[in-house]
Design brief:
By secondary structure, the protein is mainly α. Helices cover 76% and strands 5% of the residues.
Amino acid sequence: MIPDISSAIRLQTIDDRVGVLAKEIAALPKHIAEIEKKMEGHQKRLEIDKAALTGNQKERKRLEGEIQAQEQKISKLKGQMMDAKTNDQYRAFQHEIDYCQNEIRRIEDRILELMTESEDLDKNVKAAEAALAAERKVVEEEKKQTQARTATDQSEMATLMEDRKKVTSSMTPSVVSEYERIRKGRAGVAIAEAVNGRCSKCNITLRPQFLQELKKGDKIMVCESCKRILYVNPPQSFEDLVPESVRV
């Protein structure tokens, strides 16, 4: 196998790994954005629950003020009733007092309903606050892990790119250009192994004569179908397969 082919295989291995790292680096911020968006949804839910609880408390306070106003009105009516000159006037005052007392009972019933609702709302708010605090810790931890993973990926990618420069500098410039051209047009894969008489990428059967030429490994050849650079891994020799300890 000529050196350029060996180098191209190494180059493809580097490019494959760089592609994986690039996707991972791009995906990690999206992952953080998704979990932050989810947390924002929980924050809004908490704000709604808090607003409902605040509204409940304001309504109870307003109704308590109405009860106080009705009680003051009753007190005033009782004072006026003492000065009534006729039975009709007396009954009219009593009717007004009865109405006010009924209003007080109605308002008290509503306050009891609001108090029951308030208990549930208060539980919801406390549960939401606890859940949000726990989720915030998880998000912060994931952020730290993501930042560490990104830094590791970027460091590995920098090392790979240095290796890539070394590999390409050792290759014939025209082969590097051909490799890059094919890689851009073939989804990042510029070189493929011929296995069992077929291109391992497009799975097209190679012509016998073409395959024989390819096995010589003395020149750059491309698949007649997908146009990728092809290579054949030569079989191991018997000596390569036998451990040194048992060789004669």
